[in-house]
Design goal:
The chain has a single domain, classed as 3-Layer(aba) Sandwich (Undecaprenyl pyrophosphate synthetase). The strands form two sheets. It has a six-stranded parallel sheet with strand order 5-6-4-3-7-8, with helices on both faces. The protein has a two-stranded antiparallel ribbon with strand order 1-2. α1 packs across α2 and α2 packs parallel to α3. The protein has seven helices and eight strands, in the order βββααβαβαβααββα. The two termini are 14 Å apart. 39% of the residues lie in helices and 16% in strands. Bound molecules: 3-methylbut-3-enyl trihydrogen diphosphate (2 copies) and magnesium ion. The site of one 3-methylbut-3-enyl trihydrogen diphosphate (IPE) has 10 residues, from α1.
Length: 238
């Protein structure tokens, strides 16, 4: 989609990283970094959707993040239960969906997730995909199990399985990521959406997530617009 001078990516994904270091720099507890990160996410996601982005995926908690201290994990869970509802913006017609393994989460967390999804389920203009207790490898493994089940039940045939059908079995059937941003200066994916990032343009700003503001997102868009997306083909005419 064109927005004045820019090509606006259809699907943007952000690995929200650097909350802990943001807090440490200020002599604060890590949890206060997560609080600041969440407040930033609210502002930033709203700005990103206003720019015309149709799908925004964010990595909020990985399956591996359970390795952290209980106090920090509890704080992140509590943030979801008490604050994530404030991300709902029905005026913008945004459907919120969650991707990740729900079975390992507490009843309170699962209820909050279900409630947010229920409230926004009829919204059909944009999608806010929140990856929570999410692992890219696990997503692929669980999709494979569901496919095997459906083949066993005769619902699909082995020969029906292609990239398109496989994508539909992932936690949420969402098109590929166009622009993938990871804040905080780490140059890795950390088990984020592996299947959907096959051809994403990657952008790794050094900024810690609570400091990543709309103007920084605009810089990411500028950079995205300089990229030549070839998808294995030959340079496209701009
Ligand atoms: C990202 O910030 C948020 C989560 C992983 C939940 P971090 O908590 O990883 O922050 P750093 O990387 O320690 O600075
Ligand atoms: C990735 O960040 C997960 C989220 C942002 C939720 P981490 O901080 O957990 O990743 P590593 O440990 O640096 O790879
Ligand atoms: Mg981190």
């Amino acid at each position: 989609m064109k927005n004045n001078e820019y090509d606006i990516p259809y699907h943007v994904a952000i690995i929200l990283d650097g909350n802990g270091r943001w807090a440490k720099k200020r002599g604060l507890k890590r949890s206060l970094g997560h609080k600041a990160g969440f407040e930033n996410l609210k502002e930033l996601s709203s700005y990103i959707f206003d720019k015309g982005v149709k799908i925004l995926s964010v990595f909020a908690f990985s399956t591996e993040n359970f390795k952290r201290e209980k106090e920090e994990v509890d704080y992140l869970m509590d943030l979801l239960v008490t604050k994530f509802k404030t991300l709902i913006d029905k005026n913008k017609n945004i459907k919120i969906v969650f991707s990740g393994k729900r079975e390992d989460l507490s009843k309170e967390v699962i209820n909050a997730i279900n409630e947010i999804e229920e409230i926004t389920k009829e919204c059909d203009s944009k999608i806010f995909n929140i990856c929570f207790n999410y692992g890219g490898k696990l997503d692929i493994v669980e999709a494979t199990k569901k496919i095997v089940d459906d083949v066993g039940k005769g619902l699909i045939k082995k020969d029906d399985i292609d990239e398109n059908l496989f994508g539909k079995y992932l936690y949420n059937s969402i098109p590929d990521i166009d622009l993938l941003i990871r804040t905080s200066g780490e140059f890795r994916i950390s088990n984020f959406m592996l299947f959907q990032s096959a051809y994403s343009e990657m952008y790794f700003p050094k900024i810690l997530f609570p400091d990543f503001k709309p103007k920084d997102f605009d810089k990411a868009l500028e950079e995205y617009n300089k990229r030549d997306r070839r998808f294995g083909g030959i340079k496209k005419d701009k």
